[in-house]
Amino acid sequence: MQMLVLGAGQLARMMALVAAPLDIHIRAYDVTTKQVLHPVTGERYEQSLEQAIEASDRITAEFEHVPTDVLALCEQSGKLFPSKKAIECGGDRAKEKALLDAAGVPSAPYVLVTERRHLEQAISELGLPLVIKTCQAGYDGKGQWRLKSAEQTDDIWQEMQAFLDKDVAHSIICEKMIPFDREVSVIGARDIQGNVKVYPVTENEHTNGVLTLSVAGIVNQDIQAQAVDAYYKVAEALDYVGVLAIEFFEVNGELLVNEIAPRVHNSGHWTQQGTYCCQFENHVRAVAGLPMGSTDLLYPSAMINVLGQDAIPHQILATTGVRSHWYGKKVKPGRKMGHINVSAGTLHELGKRLNELSEHLSEQDYPGVKARAKQLV
Ligand code: ATP
Ligand code: MG
Ligand code: MG
User: Mean pLDDT over all residues of the chain?
Assistant: First the structure.
């Protein structure tokens, strides 16, 4: 089977690495350069988007900000999974909120802003501080502001207006700043028949809006049940096919949705070794119409993002249960360059392993790892 992935980053690459043993061959379409590429070697194919669509049996996406004309062309072919509507819902916070409200899934209270008076309304209805996000752009915490005191309103409004004027975003959302106890996410897959499989909930740490550390195998049954309930509601409302991720804030034992991602997700990278069938394989299987694999936890696992480094420190590979995944991208400050997965038979053992490997990782470049290791031991 030939599969086309819209987007040519590390997520397409990791799909391709697990698709090959299933005899599924992936080409990636880079929406910026408009080139069709091999997602692992970067080799370019002399193929237009139209030709790649024609030559593919199935089409999917590795990110939600795919131009709408590209999505329309793919959807017309009848080969695109998940649907254009589902992908666009994840790429537009206004659509996402409407979906969550309609599905009865609680999320952070919000006000949509297209004019200055809406910002005043948000301040009076939601209170300060506010988290402000562009609706149609942004990832890794980009395209966001924090409004902490009323004196900042004029300055922040000017910046917001520039985004609206440049048509980078048609609307901007103001959310109540949620005083969360922790952030968690759930990742699952839904196939064409509507069968659903959900992975164990992951606990996530962000630093400056970017995911730095995920740990799986530590949340209780109640949180897992709340996350699974939200997962079914969202996946069914979208008639979703493939892997979908939902990020949550946990506040006093209750989950509030932060956002959804209509794709494989960074907080699910640990599934590459913590489960029999990782998120990338289950995505490819669901899109291809194959039976999905087990999402059960084999081992408590953690994932550490490697940001802005030119290599993974090699000594860490000497720690039992550690594997590295490198994306082969040009290094830039703060860019996701690769990740490290670590697993162990018990959480206590996982803590010991994290502690051992953290000896080779600086606190500045790999925040939170040492503290987390201590908590688990
Ligand atoms: P991603 O790379 O996950 O797509 P993103 O750019 O879409 O990121 P969000 O997930 O919306 O951004 O926000 C990034 C982080 O900012 C969150 O993980 C959380 O730590 C913090 N954050 C976002 N919204 C809120 C909120 N309403 N209250 C408190 N913290 C928030
Ligand atoms: Mg996002
Ligand atoms: Mg997020």
Answer: 96
